[in-house]
Amino acid sequence: MGYWLTQARTVQADSVISRFDPRFWTVNFPRPMMASVVTTAPDALRVDAVFYRKSDLAGLIWEAEDNIDHPLLAYETARDFRDCVLSFRWRSDGVRTLDAIDGPTLTIEGRDADGAPRAWYVRLWNYAIGTARDAQVTLDFAHLVGGFALPQEADPVWAGDIDRMFISLVAPGYTEGDDGLLADPAEGWCELSGIACAGAGAVLAIGDAIVPEHAMRIASGYDDSYHLTPARLLRNAFQLGYRGLIDHYVGMSHYFRLQANGPDLYVSLTGGALNAACAAWHRDFSRRARALGYDVIWSLSYELFDQYCWNDWKQRAWDGSPALTGWEPPSTLLSPAHTGAMAYLRAVAVAFIALARESGMPAKFQVGEPWWWVTADGRPCLYDDAAKAAFGDDPVEIASVRGTLDDDQTALLDTAGALLAQSTAALIDALVAAFTYVETYLLAYLPSVLDPAAPEIRRANLPTGWAAPAFDVLQLEDYDWVTRGNSGASAAARAAATARLGYPEAEQHYLSGFVLNPEDADQWRAIEAAADAARGRVAETFVWALPQVMRDGFTHFDEETEVQAFDDILFPLALGREAEVAPGFSTAIVTSAGGHERRNASWAEARTRYDVGPGVRSEADIATLLAFFRARMGSARGFRLRDPFDGNSGAGSAIDQQIGIGDGAATRFAIVKHYGAHQRRITRPVAGSVRVAVDGDETTAFTIERGGWIALDAPPATGAAVTAGFAFDVPVRFAEDQLSVTRATFLAGAAPSVPLIELRED
C-alpha cells in the first residue's frame, strides 16, 4: 500500500460546477441550537434548525475558498462575485419571514474597493417577488445594495473581494443579545430550490480526481461533519477510493434533543430521541450512502456532552467529581449503572438503526468505546450513586488503578466489568427486539483498556462478559501508540485482547489513526504503516477519520504488487574476489564562467551497483544462476545480496550503531548504519544477527519488524541511547532483463557480466 499527503492538484482531473452548487453550502450556529443542510435536488437544498434560546441564529454559508474538501476535490477560490446573478425560490416555515425585522438577511464579508475589511447586510425581502414565506429571490451582485429600507438606508455592496456570505435564520421569538430560553424549543426550516447562477462568473473549476478503489475502509464522525451536506462528505469518501463499509460515529454533542430544567438544558426523549436537524441529516446520509453501495456501521458511545448531561447520569470519582474528558468543552461518561442513562442510550440506538432500515441498509451497530472513565491521575470513576448502589452502597476506594491493588479492589473492578457487560448486552437486546437481526460490533481503545501502567483496569474495561460470541465483530484501535511509534505495546495489547475475548482475527477489525491537529500531519506515515500491517491479518482495516483525511490531503492507494515485488531469499552464489562493488551518488554540478562550482547532491544515500559475474566458477554455477534469473523474471523481482565488503554494523556488539534516542514513549526505531555524518537505512537485517542495547545495557526484549525496524517491548527513558549491532543483506535486482552466458566464454576463463543494482526500500 502507499499514500500521499496532497497539498494541491497538479495534473489530476478537473471538472466544473455552477457557483452556489447546493452540495457545497455549510451551516454554522452557536450551542445549544442545532441545524443541518442537505441537498434535496441537483439545484435545491434544505436547512432544518432547532432553536432553544432567544438569541439563537443559524447561518447558511457559501465560502469563496474551499477549506473543507480534500485538495484533489476542492473547488477553485473565486472572490469576485460581480459577474454573478444568483436566483432561487425561497420557502420557509418556523423561522422569521422574509418581510420581518431580523428576517433572512444575506451577510457579505470581504473588503471594499480600497481593500478595507467590510461587511454588508442585504435584506432578501428587498430582492424577493412573492410572499414572505414563498418567493423568488434574484441577487445581481454587480448592483446589490445593503440596508433594511431602500433607498433611504442604501449601502451599496462592492462584491469584488468577498471571503464568505451567509443567510441568517432565526426563530420567530428571536431577540438579539438575549440568551434566555424560548418558551418552548422552536423547529424551523427553509428551502432554496431552483438555485441558478448566471453571468460570466457562474462556473467554478473543481477537482474531479477519482482514486482507484482500494481495500482500505473509512471511518467518520457526525460531530466533525454536521455542518456539511452528506452529499459533499460522501463525494470525498467515494472519489478517494473508499468503498464497502463506513464506520460512522454519531457523536456525543449534536444528535440529542434538549429540554429546559430551570435556566439550563438537558438531553431529553421528549418528541423523539434525535433532534430534527440531526434526523434530517442522517436520513439523507443513509439514503445517499446506500445509493453509492456503502453499508454503514452506526457507532454510539457512552460519551455525552457534559453541559447537557443530567448530573445523576455521570460517572464519578471517589470524591464525587464527574468523569470529564480532555475535549474543550468537555464531554462526560454515562454510568452503566444508571437505568435512565442506559434507557436513553437504547432509545438513541434504536432511532439511528431505524434510519438505516428506512433506507434499505442492513442493521449494523457498534458499541463504541464503552468504559469506566479513569482520570489522568489514575482514579477510576466507579462511584456515582447508581454504581455505588449496584456495588452494595459501600464499595472500597481505589485511589489509583496504577498502584498495587488488593483483593477487595480487584473484586470491585470485576464487578464493575460485569455491570458494564450487562449494560452493553441490554443495548444489543433492545436493538434485536426492535429489528430482529442486528450485526453487532464492539470497539475497544487499547491504550486505555489495556494500559500497561494499570494492568488490572482490564477487569472493568475489557470484561470477559464481552467474550465471543457476545458480539459479531471485535474492533480495536490504538492510535496513541501508533503515532508515538510504540508498536511493541500495540502488538502486545492486540494479543492480550484476542486471548481475553477469544475473537479470531478473521472476526476482528482494526481502526488506524487519527491525526488530531493539522501540524502533526507527519503522523499519517505511522498510521499508514499500521494499516498496512493490519491488512490481511484482520477482516477489515479502517482509516480514522474522514474529516482529517480531507483536511490533511491524505490519499491512500494500493500499489501494484509488481512494482514492489521482492523475493526474500539470498543470491545463491558466493561472490568471488573479483566481484565489483560500485557505490554511486547523483550530483548535479554547475560550473560558473569564473570556474567556480555549485554542487547539488540529489541522493542522501549512495546507491550501489554490483557485478557478481566473477562468482560464477563452474557449469553448475551457471545452471544455478540461470535458474535464479528466470525465477526473478529478470529485473522484475528483487532479492537479497550479501555484500562481502560491507555487510555488518562493525564489531557485531549491541553498541555498534546508535539508532535512536528515547523520548519516554516511542518503542520503534529504524535500523541504520552510520558513515560519518551520513547514515544508511538497513531494511534487510540477517535473521538472528540483531543485538540491541538501551543506554549500554543489552536487552532481548524486542522484536524485528518488516522493513528493518526494531520494536522494543517498553519505551526507553527520555534521553536513553538506543544502539544495535547486526549483519545485513542488500536488497537488489538484476540490472537488465537479459543475461548472456556462453560455454565458450566460460571455457576461456572469462567470467560473464552479471550486473545488479541496489533497491531503495525506505
Automatic annotation (TrEMBL):
Domain DUF2460 residue range list? 567-760
- Per the database entry, which stretches of residues form a coiled coil? none
Q: Where is the Non-contractile tail sheath TIM barrel domain?
A: 212-554
- Domain named Non-contractile tail sheath N-terminal: which ranges? 17-207
Q: What is the protein's given name?
A: Uncharacterized protein (TIGR02217 family)
